[in-house]
Amino acid sequence: MFLLSHVIEHIRDSLGLMQEMWRLATPGALAVVRVPHGGSDDAWEDPTHVRPYFHGSFGYFSQPHYWRADYGYRGDWQPEKIMMMVSRSRCVGLNPHQVFEKILTERNMVKEMVCEMRAMKPLRAPQQELQTPPQIEISLVDD
User: Fold this and answer.
1) Would you place residue 133 in the very low, low, confident or very high pLDDT band (cuts 50, 70, 90)?
2) Average predicted confidence (pLDDT) for the chain
3) What Cα–Cα distance (Å) separates residue 137 from each residue in 18, 54, 64, 82, 84?
4) Residues 6 or more apart from 24 whose CB is under 8 A from it?
5) How many other CB atoms sit within 10 Å of the CB of residue 69?
6) For residue 143, what pLDDT band results from cuts at 50, 70 and 90?
7) Weakest mean pLDDT among 49-58, 84-93, 114-123
8) How far is CA 23 from each of CA 12, 29, 116, rounded to the nearest angstrom?
9) Average pLDDT over residues 46-64
10) Which pTM value belongs to this model?
11) What is the pLDDT of residue 66?
């Protein structure tokens, strides 16, 4: 298992890092990545952060995502689950669909995200039909 807790947002070559982790991983190995959500001030205020991450960012660590363009990335991590820690006070009276809509349109809804990914070996083809969306979970946390 690989654990990257508030690391990847500091790495300039995240594709290179994930490719090397994939090379070292056994088939089916788990990688857990914890990051501030790109829509939060925490993702942008730290001057050592080099890029923000959103729930759709993790697909770029899988080969099927490259069906449109080849960036030379040769790793393959399947995002299985993305947990978003959301401020409880911002969700009072909302159903899950409304909470997700607010996540997509408002800042500082998500405190941080945790993505669980599996090493897919052998490397899959870059084909759109092989893309599998991750399960998204919303966890309400106190402010």
Assistant:
1) very high
2) 95
3) 23, 14, 23, 6, 6
4) none
5) 7
6) confident
7) 84-93
8) 19, 11, 17
9) 96
10) 0.93
11) 94
Burial of 63 (0-12, 13-18, 19+ CB in 10 A): buried
pLDDT, average across residues 18-35: 98
pLDDT of residue 76: 98
63 close to 120: Cβ distance less than 8 angstroms: yes
- Write the single-letter amino acid at 33: V
Confidence check: pLDDT of 29 > 90: yes
In the numeric block, the tokens 């080099």 are attached to: 50
Q: Tell me the pairing of strands 77-87 and 135-141.
A: parallel
Task: Compute the C-alpha angle 142/97/95, nearest 5°.
Answer: 55
CB 82 within 8 A of CB 138: no
Q: Which residues of 115-129 are buried (b: 16+ CB within 10 A; e: fewer)?
A: bbbbbbeeeeebeee
Type and span of the H or E element at 134: none
| DSSP code per residue over 45-111 | H-TT----B-TTGGGGGSGGGGGS---S----EEEEEEEEEEEGGG-TT--HHHHHHHHHHSTTSEE
Which amino acid, one-letter code, is at 40? S
